[in-house]
Amino acid sequence: MPAPASSALRVLILLxxxxxxxxxxxxxxxxxxxxxxxxxxxxxxATRGDARYNGVTEEYTLTAGGxxxxxxRDEFHFVWRRLTGDFIxxxxxxxxxxxxxPHRKAGWMxxxxxxxxxxxxxxxxHGDGLTSxxxxxxxxxxxxxxxxxxxxxxxxQLERRGDTYVMSAxxxxxxxxxxxxxxxxxxxxxxxxxxxxxxxxxxxxxxxxTNVRITRPAPEDFRPYRDYLGSRLExxxxxxxxxxxxxxxxxxxxxxxxxxxxxxALIFNTSGRTEARGRLHxxxxxxxxxAVIDTGPNIRNNNDHVLSFDGTMLxxxxxxxxxxxxxxxxxxxxxxxxxxxxTLAPSYLHGWSPDGRYLVYTxxxxxxxxxxxxxxxxSGPEENLTRHPGLDDGPEYxxxxxxxxxxxxxxxxxxxxxxxxxxxxxxxxxxxxxxxWFPHVAPDGRSLVYIAFPPDIDPADHxxxxxxxxxxxxxxxxxxxxxxYVYGGQGxxxxxxxAPDGRSLxxxxxxxxxx
Length: 515
Prior knowledge:
With about 525 residues, the chain is an all-beta fold. It is built from no helices and 40 strands.
């Protein structure tokens, strides 16, 4: 199991628990906290199950008996809520102990009713490591199974797209392997939740579920930059992969959190179509309160904002000048009157040199997007550091100032590169099938984190609302491991977002309202 999150990251779940017995539930229904509405045994197993929730660690612990989830009827413990439409379910699961039977099962389930013979689909891992998508098409019908190529998965995701269900499974650190089931009709409103089955009539098993996320994805008619989903501001423990939601906004998109150098706050921008669009906010991690940062007339800030290494200044990319495009300014981190730095636009800020002398950014000039640097006080002209055809973006200095890391599609796919501080000696760092964006170097300079978009995304685009990975790798290149499986993309991790102690990251995931 992952290590418990530090006390500095403790949060309260924002969703209140509700309770009540629902039609079709054969066993007694008990109140359930967190994301769910109720829990109880399905099929009346001889050994009664239970569910507990820790609001500090955001961990669900289920105990359960039950003979099986298979054949024509089931016995297991279920913590659930009702949902309609399309959704994405995500968790990390860990069994406790060796278990009485290697076929004990834990995972996600989507079920037409709480009757023991109901049609259903699940994404499940067994005690012996078997990972599979199981389903029953009709009431009282025989269970069917599609086995995953992954053995011993502990990360499970189950997505509903109409009557199509997609299971994604991985061992933490690896990318997903997907399994798809078409034409399963469970009706629009279903029971959705976590389950555990002992696969033994007298046994009592236990399993824990962390990183539990229920996500409402963008609809099929979603219009980029016109329609928006809500956001979750999350903190990630890089070593263990444990995630916590510190703030949630279902009506106002949030983007691109920076971590202040004192470790006390996050700075993010809002987006969308409301009056708050483009304002910067300081989110206090102790009080869990957000306050607007005064940036004077510059109130259309985008998700390219950077703190100076000493933490005293904030660089912003603002679009308030009518007909000009994104322009770079600096302002005291506590707010004040911005100073304009770039005269040419569009310019999207991404990095500040450790000595405070330069800003590095992406600029659109003469039909090309290249990387530029400019004196941070605006005292000199910009310098073009890249002149290769194809988009170059996301430049960021290493803490020792020896390199600038960036992403470039000069080889076809978007990959991570680095160069010297004057643009010399460019070299490619990643080389895989994904489109990799926005490298962020750890405070100790030994590793970096970046966001990986799937291969079917246009390499020149980093859109909203996609299945993406946050990946962690050594600074000089080498094997990269997934540290977060995220529904997000644009605005998730555009800017430097490491905690000053190098143990945690801040990022944004997205979801629409569930109810």
